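Re: your question from the hallway

Yes, I did run it. Sequences:
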Amino acid sequence: MEEKRICDAREMDRILERMADEIIARNRKHPKLALVGILSRGVCLARRLQRLIREKSGRDLPLGILDITLYRDDLSHATHHPVLRQTEIPFSLDDATVILVDDVLYTGRTVRAALDGLIDFGRPRSIQLAVLVDRGCRELPIAADYVGIEIPASPQDRVMVRVEESDGFDSVSVGPRTTAAGE
Amino acid sequence: MVFKRKDLLGTRDLTADEIRNLLASANSFLEIAERPLKKVPALRGKTVVNLFYEPSTRTRTSFEIAAKRLSADAINMSASTSSVVKGESLLDTVDNIQAMAPDIIVVRHRHVGAAHLIAGHIRASVVNAGDGANEHPTQALLDLLTISQHKSLESGLKVAIIGDIAHSRVARSNIWALTTLGITVRVCAPPTMLPREMEKIAGVEVCRTPEEALEGVDVVMMLRIQLERQDKLLFPSIRDYARIFGLNRQRLALAKADAIVMHPGPMNRGVEITSEVADSDRAVILNQVSNGVALRMAVLFLLGGQGS
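Structure:
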């Protein structure tokens, strides 16, 4: 099976604009709003949402970077270590409304790890989850508050989000799962 | 990064890539010390045994804090309070520890090769925290991490190491690691404290005077004079040593204007380093200590997280 493109750069822009609108509308009354992206593509998407929200509403939201490596539940099973990258949350999470941003929501394990990580930094008033793609197949009771696009995919599929910052172009595509983990 | 080693026994056999990757990992761990809640669950359920046959406060504490910040269970055993004083052999002690299924053993021993012997004998990962005058790899790596925060770790950088080179595992591990990265190391010591054939190591320059060693260097590393060895008469008197080899403001002026001053501790103030220099803004001695925790977290994480 070939890799099938679900959306291109222009469609991704539109999706992110809609998500930014939803985030603004839902959080008008929350004075302490912040974005936290999960490394690596979640951070790129969080930066774009940050820019869109600034353009649309004038609100300048602080942006944090979260590496979930140390919170993974499969560390002792993994045959090798993923690279540990730098977590940077340069603002207080106490009483903040945090929008956690990732590219693909799949089993929910990444989000579970991210929630543990975030809570180590303080006590947010609430945490909302924004994902570009929800591909289903959850293994934990986790749901997103903002979903860019739903792609019902089987565990045999590989859903790939590519972003210009790290991949050279924007796209969402579905293809057969290869040995290299993608999501 | 894939860190395939079971143990960290020295810097001599580490590749430049392995060193750079270890430093990059350690760099990511620095942030945890800044958090209100300084603990991550990465090594939850793992057991780290600190087995120290030589007195140590800094290194043992640093490993213990590193293990605890990773949520591992850290147990300290020191020779003076253990069955060693009852005559048990090293390998018997280690077999007994292994029987309790630890994941990592951090070992310091006065004999060269002790950590290597243990590593070849048991399943747990072994970190060498000092074996005789041979190696102390985590100290060298934390020194490199400290240098990297001020200078770019590449060829062209000049590091002077001054003091008791012959008895210093810190010097040895630093020399191996620095030269592997293509960095020039100048060593300077009283002749009685300088190993023979030092100059045969590629990248090492032997200097006869501290003035010669300090001229234009980017980093100055002062070694502790082991006063407890003074009975061996390696130099005429402590006062002479301080006068000829001690780092004071005038001597430091020979190094580059932005040169940093390092010391692995514990310092003998007024002997190898004056208080004026040790407390100046050029000294990064306490940064070395802070970096030590992050570096050891990286080492424990990379060794301890590898599936069983």
